[in-house]
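We emphasize that the prediction below concerns an isolated chain of 161 residues; any contacts that depend on oligomerization or on bound cofactors are therefore not represented. The input was used exactly as deposited, without trimming of termini.
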Amino acid sequence: MSSIFPIVTYEQPSIHERSVEVDEKEVTTPKFQNYLDKINKTFESLAGTAAGLASPQCGINKRVILVQLSKDRLFMINPEITKVSDSMQETEEGCFSVPGVYGMVTRAKRITVKFTDRHGRRNEIDLKNFYADLVQHEVDHLDGILFVEKVTKITQGKWPK
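Result of the prediction step, given as a token string:
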């Protein structure tokens, strides 16, 4: 078995499906921890070009994302965005599941997200600007949504659909 997951791209049907919740009792099991470690190794293999990775991009449709928040790398299990600001921002996004395509996406400038961490603890954090965009992008993956479905303008590459 490989030590990293292959990245699932837009051609594969599973990337468009809603992911299932993770049973909270499963989070601290050795099997689940190994799965998280493999997601982390996959993230590291992207050579510093990724800010986040969602489990569906690794071919497993569970509600798990990994995000790089400044110096902290954080797993969010069953993340739920509970608050969004009325203030919006438009930024350029790209995605490993849609290689070579970048585009402008409008998202909430501030969010609050509740989640379980890899140690089974419940957390709630407020994020703004880039980090708010990042978590919204990764949570969209958990709902089977790719950024190109929200794009207002393609800035690089061509979306084939």
